[in-house]
Amino acid sequence: MNHPALHTPRAPRDLVGIGIGPFNLSLAALAHPLTGLDTVFYEQRPRFHWHPGLLIDGSRLQVPFLADLVTLADPASDWSFLNYLKTRDRLFPFYFAERFHIQRAEYDAYCRWVCENLPSLRFGHHVDAVRWNPELRLFEVDFTQLDADGEAEAAGRVHTRNVVLGIGTAPHVPAPLRPLADTPGVPVVHAADYLDHRDTLLAAGHITVVGSGQSGAEVFLDLLRHRRTGAERLHWIGRTEAFAPMEYSKLGLEHFTPDYMRYFHALDEPVRDRLVAGQWQLHKGVDTDTLAAIHDELYRRTLDGGWPDAVLTPGVRVRTAGRVAGSRIELHLEHLQQGTRTRHTTDAVVLATGYRERPVTPLLTGLDPYLRRDGRERLRVDEQFRLDLDPAITATGCHVHVQNAERHTHGVGAPDLGLAAWRSATILNSVTGTQAYPLPARTAFTTFGMERRRPQIPPSRQIKALTPLADGI
Predict the structure, then answer these.
(1) How far is the C-alpha of 319 from the C-alpha of 317, rounded, in Å?
(2) What is the C-alpha separation between 34 and 29, in angstroms, rounded?
């Protein structure tokens, strides 16, 4: 279609956010009360919806409700989860429910409430490119406005001093299964689309779930609950050595603090890479309540004698996959510890194989000459979540920040909702050059490195010098 003339606002923005997931939504919420800060956020989807295919009834967040968009940076914010409950007259029911971990559907509803009330959000806008304009000494961001059907409606350009990339993650389909997943009509679906296909999956004779993390556990449990006792015909496999619980001890959780993120960032690149690979149980394990619920459901099905027709096998990878006997699916499996191989035939497959960061480099092609990379050609990210750019740009005070694209530099906390508000506040402090949101100097009891740290004594506990008593008292 023919586009109207490119619309370019006159005044540059202070900050343009690309993508509106929970992390950039956190940034927008914390930026809203900062008077004088001109921001806009673009998202190609027509509306906010957080992992709709996995909003299974009863599924809960793996972080407490305090890990909302704002509270851990500004507990008094208008955009807190508790204030959301207040606007819905639900504070007392929530209080009596005594739930520290809320349902995913409730978190999704809370985020949509924030979206409905923030004026800086622009849904139905696809960002096409980000470039540096050396004459204006500003970034220019080209976007296409989409109509209700997702078709291009108008083109625009905005200039800005700062860009924040929060384009999120995409479902990961392992290479052996991509041909089947891409074939229309073949019941091989990613867990991200599970609810859309649940009826079709439940109608299948035999179902296999691939992936041993939280999503795999929740999908397996939901399928199990909807299958008749004695005719479950379910198989759950995963690469990990066990269906392992998430590390959820209190000191273990300190890996998701700003203290650990700063420590991790200061490590050498090879050490960081080795740590990320070995810390899977910090963020890829299964909630212990979900594991218990699966065991309870399986046990209940043994009460009349016999065992449920359900097979749970960890330590297995899919080597290849194909179609057999017309509509059936054949997976060629390998047991990683035994070194044995077998063929597994099933009628439907759910891929709970996780997500991968969407690459930001295609969007930044126009900035490629200015980008600094590490030894593995990944973008370098500094402690304030800014891309390492050529001084020709940074000397002007302009920066590109990233959200949830920095696991290689900041560690396992990068995708964690509990660090969203702190990271957003860090970015806003950097953008404004002020302490718009004062942040704590210490957040963990663990001292991760060898540096000696003097304990901080709260003012209320500090011993003040004694004042001489007046005569006669």
Answers:
(1) 6
(2) 10
pLDDT grade for 472, boundaries at 50, 70 and 90: very low
Answering whether pTM is above 0.85, one says yes
What is the residue-wise DSSP string for 216-267?
HHHHHHHHHHTS-TT---EEEE-SSSS-PBP---TTGGGGGSHHHHHHHHTS
Residue recorded with tokens 């929060």: 166
Cβ contact 34:432 at 8 Å? yes
DSSP H or E segment with residue 341: strand 341-346
Structure tokens at 270: 């090879």
Rounded to 10 degrees, what is the CA torsion of 249, 250, 255, 258?
Answer: 160
The residue length of the chain stands at 473
Tell me: the pLDDT tens digits for 290-327?
A: 999 999 999 999 999 999 999 999 999 999 999 997 78
Contact 210, 318 (CB under 8 A): yes
pLDDT the model gives residue 280: 86
Tens digits of residue pLDDT in 45-84: 999 999 999 999 999 999 999 999 999 999 999 999 999 9
The whole-angstrom distance between residue 253's C-alpha and the CA centroid of its chain comes to 17
CA proximity to 312, closest of 227, 220, 204, 192? 220
Residue in 384, 358, 399 with CA at minimum distance from that of residue 16: 399
Task: Give the per-residue pLDDT at 123.
Answer: 98
Q: What is the Cβ-side half-sphere exposure of residue 169, based on CA atoms within 13 angstroms?
A: 20
**Which amino acid appears at position 276 of this protein?**
V
pLDDT score, position 4: 44
Q: How many CA atoms lie within 13 A of 90 on its CB side?
A: 12
Spatial contact of 386 and 399, defined as CB atoms under 8 Å apart: yes
Any idea what DSSP says for residue 384?
A: T
What's the order of all strands across the beta sheet hosting 125-133? 125-133, 138-146, 152-160
Spell out where 169-302 has E strands. 169-171, 188-190, 207-210, 234-237
| Tokens representing residue 281 in the block | 């149980």
CA 347 to the chain's CA centroid: 31
Q: What angle do CA 314, 319, 322 make, to 5 degrees?
A: 115
436-460: average pLDDT: 80
**Residue 397, phi-psi category: left (phi > 0), alpha (psi -120 to 50), beta (remainder):** left
* Two structure tokens written together for 16: 């343009």
